[in-house]
Amino acid sequence: MDKQLLEESLTLVDLPDSGLTVRFYDILFERYPAVKPMFQRDTRVQAEMLRIAVVSVLDHLEDAEWLTTNLHALGKRHASLGVTRPMYNAVAECMIAAMSEIGGESWTPAMTAAWEEALGAVATIMLDGYPDEATSETAAEESGAA
Ligand code: HEM
């Protein structure tokens, strides 16, 4: 994992007031309207929590124990919220779309590749924290998020 490229690229697109993650939720709800009702909180609050989560993961990329403990717990909470495997692909796609939009011409394919890898790894660890029955894709198909 290219920690330096992840950090540099996040710095490039990390707007004040969680602007990146606010834009991320706009894109997510536009492309995948079926997931919108899952979110109960104000988008700004949610965006700030997601920003903190992303920065914390980057801060601990070399700390496998931290990643496992925290992302398994976060995964478990997401299982109980009804978040399914295909939704992680949707989230990664929309996060990278927001980053690429904000980064403009400075955003490179290498940055996209680095974030695809990182968000894929985070999703894998979160899904490892799920109870076995919660990873079925049927629920996602029903919610239209697949
Ligand atoms: C990169 C993967 C993800 C990360 C790092 C992440 C992070 C977070 C964090 C930090 C929270 C705050 C609440 C808590 O700690 O329990 C949260 C809540 C939540 N997440 Fe995620 N999440 C991810 C993927 C997803 C996906 C794929 C979905 C489904 C579309 C999703 C849906 C939700 C919902 C519905 C909540 C609760 C919202 C509420 O309370 O209103 N998350 N997430």
Helix-strand layout with pairing:
Layout: H1 3-13, H2 19-31, H3 43-59, H4 64-80, H5 85-103, H6 109-128, H7 138-143
Helix pairs in contact: 1-5, 2-3, 2-5, 4-6, 5-6
Count the E strands: 0
Task: Spell out the helices and strands N to C.
Answer: HHHHHHH
Low-confidence stretches: none
What amount of the residues lies in strands?
Answer: under 5%
User: Shape from CA axes?
Assistant: globular
Instruction: Supply the CATH class.
Output: Mainly Alpha
- The whole-number mean of residue pLDDT values reads 91
If helices are DSSP runs of H or I spanning 4 or more residues, what is the number of helices?
7
Characterize the main sheet: none
Description of the structure:
InterPro entries: Globin, Globin-like_sf, Globin/Proto. Keywords: Heme, Iron, Metal-binding, Oxygen transport, Transport. One of its GO terms (biological process) is nitric oxide catabolic process. The chain is 71% helix and 0% strand. With 146 residues, the chain is mostly helical. It has one domain: Orthogonal Bundle (Globin-like). α1 (3-13) crosses α5. The longest helix has 20 residues, at 109-128. The radius of gyration is 15 Å and the shape is globular. The chain starts with a helix and ends with a helix. Protoporphyrin IX containing FE (HEM) binds at residues 35, 38-41, 46, 49-50, 53, 74, 77-78, 81, 83, 87-88, 91, 119, 122-123.
